[in-house]
Structures are given as C-alpha cells and as structure tokens.
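Students often ask what a 'structure token' actually looks like in practice. Rather than answer in the abstract, let us consider Rap1a/Tai family immunity protein, a protein of 134 residues. Its sequence is given first.
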Amino acid sequence: MTKQTRHLIFAATLAAALAPAVAHAGFYSGDELYAVCTTDKDDKTFFEKSYECVGYISGAVDAFNTTREANKLKSCIPADVTISQLRKATVDYLGKNPKDRAKSASSQVFAATRKAWPCPAGKPATKKAGRKKR
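Now compare that with the structural description of the same chain:
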C-alpha cells in the first residue's frame, strides 16, 4: 500500500467518523459527545469515535478562539496546550457535570476549557486598547 493510499484511507475514515457531528450541527449534545469520547477501547468503533471526539473538541476550541480574535480578545488557553489535554479537560468536565450534558456539546467544551484554563484573576481577557470612537 502506498503512502498516498494510506493517507486517502485515513482521510476517508476521518470524514466518516466526523459525519455524525456534522449531521447534528448545533444540536450535538454534551451527552452525545461524552458517549463518543468515552467509548470503550475494546469497542470496534473506538478508532472512529476517538477521532470524532478530538475532532469535535479541537474544532469547537478553534471556533472559540477565532471568535475571540475577531473581537480583539485574547484566548486564555495557553498556546502549548495539546489536543489530548483539551480532550481530557472536556471529558473530565462532562463526567463531573452530568446534569449539564443535555446542553449543547459546544457550550460544554467552552465551559470545560474555561474551568481548566481560566483567565487570570484581575486581568480578564479584554479588548485591546485602541483609538476611541468619537
């Protein structure tokens, strides 16, 4: 099998794994994300579910950070945080807050990251100083 063929198979597998997340759009719940992220390692769908989990979480965090940048706000998540750390923080949060899992998955990822990496006290991430409008 060539390297290009392996890449195509990987891309197709990843796309198939992420398809349910796209189909649910804004209606993907914390319960659904928690179920995907906690799939047993012996489950035949573990590989696909793992990619769905990290794909959803990293996409949500990228969207949050893009929105913050567009509003001239700084992210409070350190630049050296890994996708694995984002996944762990999200799964831990979802595990400890089962009542909130009925809410949207994206809101739960946001809550998890804010809890794990809060903005420094007394120095909230605010708009950068600029020219005042008159």
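One point worth highlighting: Residues 47 and 132 are 52 Å apart (CA to CA). Ask yourself how you might have guessed this from the sequence alone, and why that guess would often be unreliable.
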